[in-house]
Amino acid sequence: MGGQATDADADAEYDDWYTWGKAVLYLEMAIAILVTVFSLYLAFNGQAGFLAH
């Protein structure tokens, strides 16, 4: 209601570093998810190094 800033208003208050910071953060989150999925794939296929023995 009154006085609350929307996401567009919040983004307008920051410089370019904020937009790039959010992009880098989302990229890092995607990389972490991919590493997790790859690790689980290796574990369930018996290729997880010493854990697979």
Output the keywords.
mainly alpha
The average pLDDT value, as a whole number, equals: 81
Low-confidence stretches: none
Total count of helical runs of at least 4 residues: 2
CA-based shape:
rod-shaped
Report the portion of residues in β strands. under 5%
Using DSSP, what is the number of strands? 0
Content-based structural category: mainly alpha
Largest sheet: none
Order of helices and strands: HH
Tell me roughly what share of residues is in helical segments: 55-70%
Distance from first to last alpha carbon: 60 Å
Tell me the Rg in angstroms: 20 Å
Explain what this protein looks like in three dimensions.
By secondary structure, the protein is an all-alpha fold. It has a domain at 15-45. It is built from two helices and no strands. It is rod-shaped and about 50 Å long. The mean pLDDT is 81. Keywords: Membrane, Transmembrane, Transmembrane helix. The chain crosses the membrane at residues 23-44.
Short structural description:
The chain has helices spanning 7-12, 16-44. The model has no long low-confidence stretch (mean pLDDT 81).
What is the topological layout?
Layout: H1 7-12, H2 16-44
